Amino acid sequence: MDNKEFAKKLEFRTRQFGISIIKTSSLLPQTLEAKVIKNQITKSGTSIGANYREANRSRSQRDFKNKIKISESEASETEYWLEIIKDLNWIENEKLNPVIKET
């Protein structure tokens, strides 16, 4: 697999991850606290793919590295929110664990 093919596959995978985050966030309770986390996780979880896509369209190697670092940071933040959701038992583990694994 060459770099362009890898990049296309990872763009697709990160977009699918963003969709899974949106679906996961819709399972959260309708409390004020959960709405705050829903907003945070949706923003960080969908940002991973958006920044990766931008990295693939970067104008320089420096810009590429910067966008990749942002994607990594957003993935770390998303994992943090998923861990909080898990610790609070807001979503069943069989639904949450695959999303955590993909993060």
TrEMBL record:
Pfam families on file = 23S_rRNA_IVP
The protein's superkingdom reads Bacteria
**Signal sequence segment:** none
What PANTHER family has UniProt attached to this entry? FOUR HELIX BUNDLE PROTEIN
Q: What is this protein called?
A: Four helix bundle protein
Q: What species is given as this protein's source?
A: Pseudotamlana carrageenivorans
Q: Lineage of this protein's species?
A: Bacteria, Pseudomonadati, Bacteroidota, Flavobacteriia, Flavobacteriales
